[in-house]
Design a protein that fits this description.
With 156 residues, the chain is an alpha+beta fold. 44% of the residues lie in helices and 13% in strands. The protein has helices at 11-20, 27-38, 43-53, 57-66, 86-90, 93-104, 146-154; strands spanning 78-83, 117-122, 133-136, 139-142. The structure holds FE2/S2 (inorganic) cluster. FE2/S2 (inorganic) cluster is lined by residues 83, 85-88, 124-128, 131, 133.
Length: 156
């Protein structure tokens, strides 16, 4: 059932918090489970965790922003990862990132307003020979111009 103050169904959250009780050192597993349940870590949910566990919200935010596995905004249907490791960087990865950011109005690390795409910048995916490398969902593309990448993204 939707909670009127948060606009989220809090039942999954309460089940997770009940499971962990007041054990110490459980911030990361709690956040992992919450992210699995909600797809990301909404700030309203983090506030609710803080209220129920007495873990300061600043501490939860600190953990959520420190570890790259955590997302503070919803993920789009398609994940675009642009490698900006050294080989990809010198082969033009920043131009690809900028082209995607501009085309879909989504700064790296965020999602397009229609939640069709999420853009992530990653560092060396082990395919330097194909630099610059872009991975769209599970398809790997190499040596493409920014325009060619936009075409692949448009076609997913
Ligand atoms: S730097 Fe991009 S694949 Fe290695």
């Amino acid at each position: 059932m939707l909670d009127m103050t948060t606009n989220f169904d809090l039942a999954p959250l309460h089940a997770i918090l009940e499971e962990y009780g007041s054990q110490k050192g459980t911030v990361i597993p709690i956040l992992q489970r919450v992210q699995d349940a909600y797809g990301y870590l909404p700030k309203e949910i983090l506030a609710e965790i803080s209220k129920r566990t007495n873990i300061p919200l600043t501490q939860l935010m600190g953990v959520a922003t420190f570890y790259t596995q955590f997302r503070l905004s919803p993920r789009g249907k398609h994940l675009i990862r642009v490698c900006d490791g050294t080989a990809c960087h010198v082969s033009g990865a920043p131009h690809i990132v900028r082209a995607i950011e501009k085309e879909y109005d989504m700064p790296a690390g965020s999602s397009s307003p229609d939640l069709k795409y999420t853009l992530e910048v990653v560092y060396c995916v082990g395919a330097c020979g194909l630099a610059p490398v872009v991975i769209v969902d599970d398809k790997v593309y190499g040596r493409l111009s920014p325009d060619a990448v936009l075409e692949k993204v448009r076609d997913v």
